[in-house]
């Protein structure tokens, strides 16, 4: 654990130092290289262990390279997450930068981009927008624009897609909505159930459901932009609640393969789903697998209402001393174009769009795309069509489409959340759930550990 945290901290620091050294070697502005056809090259440095994410970026190259002015090329700084750390990839990029090979665009985890920003080595994209035009801040979904803007108004980086992990509840058994889904409401709702049920379908300690439930409690205690931790009573309540539920779940007998029916029949309060766009995956995850039940997306309970947990695979930043800032921004604008946003969402199941103008067209297309899906497209999730010849597949109604549109537009996106801090927090949470630590002692330890951690990052 400590080794991983240290490697993540070193990764951004090494890149920052290398970028600084490269910038100080010469006062002559760097010049972009050109191809034989006279197009200026946009060098993209990609840092990630997720080869699937690399694929998403690579699929955008052909459409961008059709233009007559720029040619994008990717240098892959990938690492094997099983045997290497992110520092390995960052070391390679640092060595290249020190040798004079400075990328025009860096695609990396939000943690690396934030570290570079804090050391002053990436350009402010709000100034880039103003200088080169194209996509502007007001073209983005409001929650996307807010999430990437720092307190001083600067924009260190931008992302082109995101996914959401959320709780889903059957409206036949509860009137919970996201705005009222607080920790107090979660506990009250569970305790008032007429028949003892599972809180969620998968109850082993710190399963995915519980992990995100606890991260929901973290959201209301952590300022992700400033990396300040302010625990409240809600976090301790959440820990005690989950520890108590786990002790009950050990004696609860149910067939894992039919756990989806638990939500439909009222044997569990909620379920956990991962949404990756307005596409076939959404219909499978949120409609067909629950047999068209009137489900509501409610996020994870926090002190000020339920919020989903957002996954932002990578962000894009332009180094201050990049040779081809204009070309780098043109590539970002390509990723945010209508065609690319639609292709990424519909063809690649790559995540929700981030620009306002893409949402409604995708919803309109979903009327055809989602409702033409065969019943068997959801695999083992739903078998009723085989059992009942009169079975009618659930449809993506206008109401459900609008529910999804509202949900993605109002989701709280936290690209600069500290994954290292979350690991520290969840490590202590696990001790509480295993009965080795009281919730109050856990909060006390977290104050000390996070104070040290955050001091080291400054």
Walk me through this protein's architecture.
With 458 residues, this protein is of the alpha/beta class. The protein has 19 helices and eleven strands. The strands form three sheets. Strands 4, 5, 8, 9 and 10 form a five-stranded mixed sheet that branches. A four-stranded mixed sheet has the order 2-1-3-11. The chain has a two-stranded antiparallel sheet with strand order 6-7. Helix 10 packs across helix 19 and helix 15 packs antiparallel against helix 17. It starts with a helix and ends with a helix.
How do the strands and helices of this protein lay out in sequence?
Layout: H1 2-25, E1 40-48, H2 51-58, H3 61-64, E2 70-78, H4 86-98, E3 105-108, H5 110-118, H6 125-132, H7 142-148, E4 163-170, H8 183-191, E5 198-200, H9 208-219, E6 222-223, E7 228-229, H10 233-249, H11 259-265, E8 268-275, H12 280-286, E9 295-297, E10 309-311, E11 315-317, H13 325-335, H14 338-347, H15 356-369, H16 384-387, H17 398-410, H18 419-433, H19 439-457
Parallel strand pairs: 1-2, 1-3, 5-8
Antiparallel strand pairs: 3-11, 4-8, 4-9, 4-10, 6-7
Helix pairs in contact: 1-4, 1-5, 9-10, 9-18, 10-19, 15-17, 18-19
Question: Can you tag this structure with a few keywords?
Answer:
2 domains; 11 strands; globular; five-stranded mixed beta sheet; D-Maltodextrin-Binding Protein, domain 2; alpha/beta; four-stranded mixed beta sheet; about 450 residues
